Automatic annotation (TrEMBL), chains A, B:
PROSITE patterns: HTH_GNTR. This is GntR family transcriptional regulator. It comes from Vreelandella neptunia. Signal peptide: none annotated. InterPro entries: GntR_C, TF_FadR/GntR_C, Tscrpt_reg_HTH_GntR, WH-like_DNA-bd_sf, WH_DNA-bd_sf. The keyword Transcription regulation applies. Keywords: DNA-binding, Transcription, Transcription regulation. Residues 14-81 form the HTH gntR-type domain. It comes from the Bacteria.
Length: 230, 230
DNA sequence: TCATCAAAAAATGCATTCATAATTCATAAT
DNA sequence: ATTATGAATTATGAATGCATTTTTTGATGA
């Protein structure tokens, strides 16, 4: 008996440079490609087992995202995270996050709210266990869920592109106990706004939440310098 | 007598793919590459007199910007402007424009305000002469000036990338006399907010201004279909 | 010892080439 | 006449090669 055609998933073949883009993006975000350092084109070719052509296409794409800086005839460099960058990026993220809050309250379904409450409880559990890695992970999912609920692909794309640029910093920046408690509390407020469909309120909470995050990262940056290269 | 070295401008050599990116972007924005059509890779190579390698790098970059859609093994297509796109893009632009208004009022200098008033007067003159092309041009400059005054590169970049996607539509969408008068009036309000450094007010006016623009473009879209290809 | 400059080495930008996938077109079958 | 099949054509994805630029290295002189 042969399976029906409809039962088969659509086979969408990804091209090599797309995979590379994601792979290298991940390397930048998790820090294995450090900010301020040169991108070792040859090494990456060996590592991924590809030629320079698709690799360089991926680099161009990442540069458009702002994760890399291309200097003509001098190659690609991992963009540094500077104080100025953060002060630039966070207000923009704030504006986008505020919008996502408003839109999410307009479009979110009851089922989605319930799902998010579950996620939230899970996160609180990790907070109580002081399990930072899992806390971060679930946290990420919650913010993604808010974006999804906003039903605006453009917004999601723009936000994610900015978030990627600062996520590197957020990963390494350790939270104090107080900040962590505060962040968790803010998340409780986020949930309540969602449950009340209070778009205005959610806007404000999300913006505050982000501003506090900025403060954390800023503190960390003060104590941690990066390589001097551009 | 040889010129001194210092007198020479820093010769920043642009790489080929950067030029190409700009050239093709322009072709998309001004409509000579129509939405929904396939990008003729070979033709463009001949036109610009380059090989496929830098051209394809440019295409990748434009795809990251959302101006093109890449289908694996099937090439690049000019993204269509759909009703849904606009309804997605404009709220995001609105949020960014509101932020730019607030920031601009904080950072703009008196000299900049004067310069903008000059621009504004020029634009009004073109309005009175019903010179749409020049009106658009100066209009563009004014909005750029507001972005510049916000002193936030990230914001400018994000905004421009979105603006590019809808500019194609704005170009072709004809304004009615009423709409044109209204837009000009809104610009007068923008100037007054800037002169008073009224960030809140400017936010609101810019957002309204944009919403009206959306209405214009939306009307146009209703009457103008695009090729059916993805 | 340090600075300067030249030559060698390495890396980048771009063109070309090759393999593979997609599209078109002609032919055959219903 | 219309649809399906398969070969020919075309276009894309990726690797390689070459010319040019940048960087490094090392030798020379102060």
């Amino acid at each position: 008996m042969t399976p029906t055609l409809a039962a088969q998933p659509v086979f969408r073949r990804k091209s090599l440079h797309e995979d590379l883009t994601e792979g290298i993006r991940e390397q930048i975000v998790n820090g294995s490609l450090a900010p301020g350092t040169k991108v070792p084109e040859k090494e990456l070719c060996l590592h991924y087992g590809v030629s320079r052509t698709p690799l360089r296409e991926a680099l161009k794409a990442l540069a458009t995202d702002g994760l890399l800086t291309l200097e003509p005839n001098r190659g690609a460099w991992v963009s540094k995270i500077t104080q100025e960058d953060l002060d630039e990026v966070f207000p923009v993220m704030g504006a986008l996050e505020a919008l996502s809050g408003e839109l999410a309250c307009k479009h979110i379904t009851a089922a989605e709210v319930r799902k998010m409450r579950t996620l939230h409880n899970k996160m609180v559990k990790y907070y109580e266990q002081r399990d930072l890695a899992n806390y971060f992970d679930v946290n990420q999912h919650i913010h993604e869920a808010i974006l999804d609920a906003a039903r605006n692909e453009t917004l999601s794309t723009q936000y994610r592109s900015l978030a990627t640029r600062v996520r590197r910093a957020r990963y390494v920046a350790n939270m104090t106990q107080e900040r962590w408690a505060q962040a968790t509390d803010e998340h409780e407020q986020i949930m309540q706004c969602l449950e009340k469909r209070d778009g205005q309120g959610l806007s404000v909470v999300l913006k505050t939440h982000l501003e506090n995050k900025l403060a954390t990262v800023r503190d960390w940056l003060k104590d941690n310098d990066q390589p001097p290269a551009a």
